[in-house]
Amino acid sequence: MRTVYPIETLTxxxxxxxxEGVRERYNRIMATLENLTIEDLKLKHVQASDFFMNNGxxxxxxxxxxxxxxxxPFDIIPRIITREEWQHIEAGIKQRLTxxxxxxxxxxxxxxxxxxxxxxGELIExxxxxxxxxxxxxxxxxxxxxxxxxxxIRGADGVFYILEDNLRTPSGVSYMLENRxxxxxxxxxxxxxxxxxxxxxxxxxxxxxMQDMSDKEAPxxxxxxxxxxxxxxxxxxxxxxxxxxPLVEGRDLVVQNDMVYMKTTxxxxxxxxxxxxxxxxxxxxxxxxxxxxxxxxxIMQAYKKGNVCLVNAVGNGxxxxxxxxxxxxDMIRYYLNEEPILPNVPTYRLENEGDRLYVFENxxxxxxxxxxxxxxxxxxMGPSATDEEVEKCIAAVKKSPRSFIAQPVITLSTVPCLIDxxxxxxxxxxxxxxxxxxxxxxxIVPGGLTRVALKEGSLVVNSSQGGGSKDTWVID
Length: 476
Description:
Blueprint: E1 17-18, E2 21-22, H1 27-34, H2 38-54, E3 58-60, E4 69-71, E5 74-82, H3 83-107, H4 112-115, H5 121-125, E6 147-154, E7 160-166, H6 173-186, H7 188-193, H8 202-212, E8 221-224, H9 233-243, E9 247-248, E10 253-256, E11 259-264, E12 267-270, E13 273-276, H10 299-304, E14 309-311, H11 328-336, E15 348-349, H12 353-361, E16 366-370, E17 379-381, H13 387-399, E18 404-408, E19 414-419, E20 422-431, E21 433-436, E22 442-444, E23 449-452, E24 468-475
Parallel strand pairs: 5-24, 8-9, 8-13, 13-14
Antiparallel strand pairs: 1-2, 3-4, 6-7, 6-21, 10-11, 11-12, 15-18, 16-17, 16-18, 19-20, 20-23, 21-22, 23-24
Helix pairs in contact: 2-6, 3-11
Protein name: Circularly permuted type 2 ATP-grasp protein
């Protein structure tokens, strides 16, 4: 396999190649590729796809007329990060999550950061995920963000930037773990030769932080899923199985005397910790959406009284609002008296008239995002948008400027992918998964989910928008 894309065609940072040739970190994997024929690589690709299909590793696309169940596209060429780069990323994420946890406690209690003029109070009040029901509620060990998926990109300058914070019910960690399993099957020698750091201990870390949230020596823990039709249902079943805890739906739980119980064949069993994959508005029909059939009536009262721990905490969405994202570097300085290790992408808040006018004038160089959308939805890519799409976006911003932010288009780094029997560059991001424990300790398995924009030239990596993934190697 000697087909390499022309270096001169690259417009940004390529993870594998420089103008001088292959980066040192990729020397061994490149040697492996050069000893394989195109037929060998195609066979490995088929083997990977068969592994995903046979193990039911799927996600759901509700808008696809061809069918809702798909395997997650996987590219066999790994994305490699050096230990030095990883230590920088790890330190930056730990710093960021420490500040975000303190912000969430503050904003639901004293709101000192607002009183001191660091964040506008009206910004918080206007956030749809700022839940007044959580004001004054004490959560176990002051941990709000137990599980996070922090999205990073590497720009053309080689610098890692934080793109967004996912602090509610972040998904994708099962794909990170299964990507490694399939790599063990198709490139076992390369894993050994490169001394790749392991990721398989993530479920053990997750189980431990859940146990630590309870005062009981052996708490009863469950994973709460919306059900089989949820896009991430595979992940819910996977994590419950890996931790050896029951997977339950709302109908399997009941609240009595402000305690949460699980229905079992032997009667009711009290539940102490719930890893919930149900969004806030559906968690309790007595408090939020009365039409919710997914949640548990009365669970919020049990939660407020400290009789059950919800992982993640309710109300976290105020901290990953894309307009609040602008202020995370200020949170780090305010709560920790430190400079941010990992920078934000420059961001324009469109409720500010000056920012709004500047973005309108330069919209062809911008990405415009809805502040509370995810999955690649509610987004305008200025360079590729039609005139009609631009006009529609501008009208929506004018109608509700608080609901949008804009960022300059940053050319994401590229990694080689096996496309049509050739190595071709495709843009990637990185989502490491961090777990926050009871003593403030933050654990991050070395790697994360590298998401790939499989469409040529695309910067949208979300699986719902045609993206795929790669195994992420952290090497010493």
